Amino acid sequence: MAPKSDIEIARAATMRPIGEIGERLGISDDNLFRYGPYKAKVSFDHVNSLQGKPDGKLILVTAITPTPAGEGKTTTSVGLGDGLNRIGKNTITCLREPSLGPCFGMKGGAAGGGYAQVVPMEDINLHFTGDMHAIGTAHNLLSALVDNHIYWGNELNIDARRVTWRRVLDMNERALRDIVTSLGGVANGFPRQSGFDITVASEIMAIFCLARDLDDLQERLSNIVVAYTRDRQPIRARDVKGHGPMTVLLKDALMPNLVQTLENNPAFIHGGPFANIAHGCNTVLATTTALKMADYVVTEAGFGADLGAEKFFDIKCRKAGLKPSAAVVVATVRALKMHGGVARGDLGNENVEAVRAGLENLGRHIGNIRKFGVPPVVAINQFIADTDAEMAVVREYCDGLGVNAYVCSHWANGGAGTEELATKVAEIADSGDADFKPLYGDDLSLWDKIRTVTKEIYGADDATADGAVMNQIEQYEKDGFGKFPVCMAKTQYSFSANPDLKGAPSGFTVPVREVRLSAGAEFLVVICGAVMTMPGLPRVPAANEIHINEAGNVEGLF
Q1: How is 216-261 classified by DSSP, letter by letter?
Q2: Residues facing residue 383 across a β-bridge
Q3: Do residues 181 and 143 make contact, with C-beta atoms less than 8 angstroms apart?
Q4: Dist. CA 192–CA 180, nearest whole Å
Q5: Mind listing the pLDDT tens digit for each residue in 20-79?
Q6: Which of 60, 56, 73, 80 is nearest to 368 (CA)?
Q7: Residues 6+ apart with CB under 8 A from 468
Q8: Which domains, and CATH codes, for the chain?
Q9: How many C-beta atoms lie closer than 10 Å to residue 393's C-beta?
Q10: Looking at per-residue confidence, does 18 or 533 come out higher?
Q11: Catalytic one among 10, 69, 110, 275?
């Protein structure tokens, strides 16, 4: 008999009413705003009532450089949270909300897999509680207000050639990357070049995920730079009266979303920026709320540790004052073999030497985590075809680095498959050995911040940029944005900007193609190489297999 698919496992789950999950966390019934029986938002009244309570221990789950073989970072996050609860540790898992783009594209959903999932899986992977819609609508409202201001007399003297605020859509749509707006005559406005990004790359998403409360949200929204005048003066969202209505659109969305795992443990799923083009972490509000209600909080950062973890440390933790106590680096034998040169079709064959060659990738990520003063531990996400000899060489390598590595079977066994890892993670978190610090200081120049990340984290010789980019960086510093951290946008498939360079490459430079200001989120987006802020669908998208079956159930979602 074929193993059950993720959606079949999720559909067979025995979920508890969300009120019971809330009661376990001390959330009263009138502080849960329900979206059906199994998902709810936690009111600001409850969030505010937690202020002054001590924080639990924050545990980051990150991974090696991703491959098409899959690493299972979200699955491991859920499995670890379940494992910690199984050994008696009061734990909440905090994850990002999935984007519809990957769900219908190539990556699939982001609710975990096997017996380590958050549920209701279909809802979470599709429209959920409407947060993504609210974020996209708020973003596009601001776009409409900018063009409307230009149309009705342009009192602010906006230079239509220097409108930097694009539009967004929560779908992979390459045809909209570069467009011309306002065609069709005078009644439609002034034609100009523009484009779409995917919603999870929006600055509104970044602001949403970094805001501490509604007041902070509105202040950040007001600071967004949307355009410039002919004499290069910035025009902000507040200048076109956009911050008020955007806050209204986002006020309910900002409340954290509460759901449960397959083992009926609490999980917050809130916010969803990509880590290859945004900062890749769930909301500060969900994380800080969970820390007040649990002894341990497990959260993830997107893609490999060179992207998600670096931004978690250098952006989220810096901005929110968070101090992580431990980090779990997820690796799979399959992915290590790909980094060691094995083709995807040959991954089912034992190849100890390829695993050994691919371990350089894991080693660099471990070293990078240590640069932030956070003690790492390795989770080997087990697949059926993995052999004892292959897993032994991973453990031996980690032993040589002074890092514990644990084989985890959470996909097949849920929390029971991570108990050994959970015990070690709790021990590390409780030890007080963590001494977190960002990679660079606020006062370092923007270009030196970029160079520091490329050299220290990616292993590059240096970063390069043409004169126009360097002039733009210099102008941002003159405009008062020099203390901002940098949010590196590059391929997730390599330490370099070349997705074909696997393992732990060296002797390369990172080309900086463009730098975009996110004045409300308070960071600079540094676009490297050919990375796209609006993905396209693959030749055979996952959407081709998604449908409603005769019983009225969703099929093909994963």
Answers
A1: HHHHHHHT-EEEEETT--EEEGGGGT-HHHHHHHHTTTTSPEEEEE
A2: none
A3: no
A4: 6
A5: 999 999 999 999 999 999 999 999 999 999 999 999 999 999 999 998 877 789 999 999
A6: 60
A7: none
A8: 6-130+253-431 (3.40.50.300), 132-248 (3.30.1510.10), 446-528 (3.10.410.10)
A9: 18
A10: 18
A11: 275
Catalytic choice (62, 74, 75, 332)? 75
Alpha-carbon gap, residue 236 to 387, rounded angstroms: 57
Under a CB-based contact definition with an 8 Å cutoff, are residues 58 and 299 in contact? yes
Quick check: is 75 catalytic? Answer: yes
SS3 for 254-293 is CCCEEEEECCCCEEEECCCCCCCCCCCECCHHHHHHHHHH
Whether 107 sits among the annotated catalytic residues: the reply is yes
Tokens describing residue 64? 């090696």
The encoded tokens of residue 429 equal 């978190």
The H or E element spanning position 391 is: helix 388-400
Whether 383 is catalytic: yes
| HSE-up (13 A, CA, CB side) for residue 541 | 15
Among the listed residues 39, 19, 227, 266, the one whose alpha carbon sits nearest the alpha carbon of residue 142: 227
Peptide bond between residue 98 and the one before it cis (omega within 30 degrees of 0): no
Per annotation, catalytic residue among 89, 107, 319, 364: 107
Is position 196 annotated as part of the catalytic site? Answer: no
For 281-315, the pLDDT digits (tens) are 999 999 999 999 999 999 999 999 999 999 999 99
Beta pairing partners, 281:
301
165, 196, 312, 411: the catalytic one is: 411
Contact 246, 179 (CB under 8 A): no
State both tokens at 105. Answer: 């594209």
The reply to whether 424 belongs to the active site is no
Question: Rounded to 5, what percent of the chain is helix, strand, coil?
Answer: 40, 20, 40
3-state class (DSSP) for residue 159? strand
Q: Which two tokens stand for residue 153?
A: 């007399």
And the tokens for 393?
């060489």
What are 219's two structure tokens? 């202040």
Query: What are phi and psi for residue 128, nearest 5 degrees?
Result: 50, -120
List C-alpha distances in Å: 14 to 8, 10, 24: 12, 9, 17
- To the nearest 10 degrees (0 to 180), the angle between helices 352-371 and 388-400 is 30
Single-letter amino acid, residue 54: P
Q: What is the pLDDT of residues 83-93, one digit of tens each?
A: 999 999 999 99
CA-wise closest residue to 39 among 128, 117, 135, 130: 128
Backbone CA torsion sign across 216, 218, 222, 224: positive
Going by C-alpha positions, the residue among 260, 257, 261, 258 that lies closest to residue 410 is 261
Active-site option among 274, 312, 372, 383: 383
Is 73 considered catalytic here?
yes
Sign of CA dihedral 267, 269, 273, 279: negative
pLDDT tens for each residue of 517-541: 999 999 999 999 998 889 999 899 8
**Distance from C-alpha of 172 to C-alpha of 140, rounded to nearest angstrom:** 17
